[in-house]
Amino acid sequence: AAKAEALVGGDWYDAFCLNDGRIVLSIGDVMGSGLLAAVTMGAVRQALRGAAQILAEPIEILDAADRALHSEQPDSIVTAFVGILDPITLTLIYASAGHPPPLLRSAAGEITTLGGSGLPLGIRSMRTDASETSHSITLDNSSLIVLYTDGLIEATRDIEVGENRVREALQNAEVWNAENPAATISDHVLEEVLDDVAMITIRIESASISVTRPAGLT
Length: 218
Description:
By secondary structure, the chain is an alpha+beta fold. It is built from five helices and nine strands, in the order ββααββββββαααβ. The strands form two sheets. Strands 1-2-3-4-7 form a five-stranded antiparallel beta sheet, covered by helices on one side. A four-stranded antiparallel beta sheet has the order 6-5-8-9, with no helix packed on it. β1 and β2 form a beta hairpin. The longest helix has 18 residues, at 35-52.
């Protein structure tokens, strides 16, 4: 939290399993800080959780949360990112509502930006362009995903510098091998906290499986 005396903020991260085994990931940032932002954050986070139980696409989940926010707190604006990870196929489908794009690092050190161009929650109903679509990417057997809020990249007071710091940290072997990559990235990037910060990392470690059949069994 940006305000130490409040001990709460408007940023969140979340991860939970659906009944079919897929994992829903979300992160977001409520405009403002302190108690009011924290209350709004809790409501949006729960709206996303509820929507994910009945809707299949991240875009649909974000739109449902947008309607709930606009109905209950029409003056609030929230950026958010929602991804749904299939741990069997290693496919990640995702969508963004005006949120900083997460970063994906492969074992080889290549970094991919998981971008999106949707409007933030609270004003998505105002869009006049064609309907958005969710994005999809197949992950490597060994990879690391970093979801974060803008407080991480704005701490330097220069967003471009902040983004470069996060990328450099993600390519660092210490971060790649860390037991807690999020904490290690924070140590590399943050010198002071000017805004609420939330971050979650997802590590993919998928090993090949060999099966030995008994003699005579096809």
